[in-house]
Design a protein that fits this description.
By secondary structure, the protein is α+β, with helices and mostly antiparallel strands. The protein has helices at residues 3-15, 31-38, 42-92, 134-189; strands spanning 97-105, 108-115, 119-125, 128-133.
């Protein structure tokens, strides 16, 4: 891929409204025209807007959970990468054994003396663990960290976009409700 192609991809990403396809909530500027187009009762329009609002809140909850998982995953990956680099430096120094501490259970560590090795096993999830050379493990972890950080950026962007959408929906609901109140008051006065 050439540098020119990369610039196009970055610019395309910036223009993108949502990375996961969150629908856009359009602001109702002219409530009279909007209600004329809907041909529905105010209650049904408010119910429709309330359903959209609920969907946005549900999407927000899912994105918040995804952000929480990613924020926990990134430091774990970075600690694993640090350990790989430590093993690489110990191997380069021709150290025979490495004294370390490892987590036995929550807040309980134990000392261990491990032989310096050129292979490690990485837990990939879904009950899968694979053995890698130190260089391969470093490459895998580096790619995973980059991918997780990029995904976290997308999630943050989508959360901001989503907040705008449900705020717009809330404003639309208030405008339609106020329009109905004014219409009823005008009908009572005549």
């Amino acid at each position: 891929m050439e540098d020119g192609d990369n610039k196009v991809d970055v610019e395309h990403d910036k223009e993108k409204k949502s990375y996961v396809g969150i629908p856009v909530a359009y602001f109702v500027d002219d409530v009279d025209a909007f209600m004329a187009n809907e041909n529905e009762s105010v209650d049904k329009v408010l119910q429709m807007l309330d359903e959209d609002h609920g969907k946005y809140k549900f999407m927000e909850l899912n994105l918040i959970n995804k952000r929480k998982r990613l924020k926990a995953q990134i430091p774990d990956l970075e600690r694993s990468l640090e350990m790989i680099k430590k093993l690489q430096s110990e191997k380069a120094n021709d150290t025979k054994e490495l004294e370390t501490q490892f987590l036995l259970s929550e807040q309980l560590y134990t000392k261990a003396i491990i032989p310096v090795t050129d292979k490690v096993c990485l837990w990939l999830g879904a009950n899968v663990m694979l053995e890698y050379t130190l260089d391969e493990a470093e490459e895998v972890l580096t790619k995973n960290i980059e991918s997780a950080k990029k995904t976290l950026g997308y999630v943050e962007h989508d959360l901001d976009f989503l907040r705008d959408q449900y705020t717009t929906t809330e404003v639309n609901m208030a405008r339609v409700y106020n329009w109905e109140v004014k219409r009823r008051l005008a009908a009572k006065s005549t």
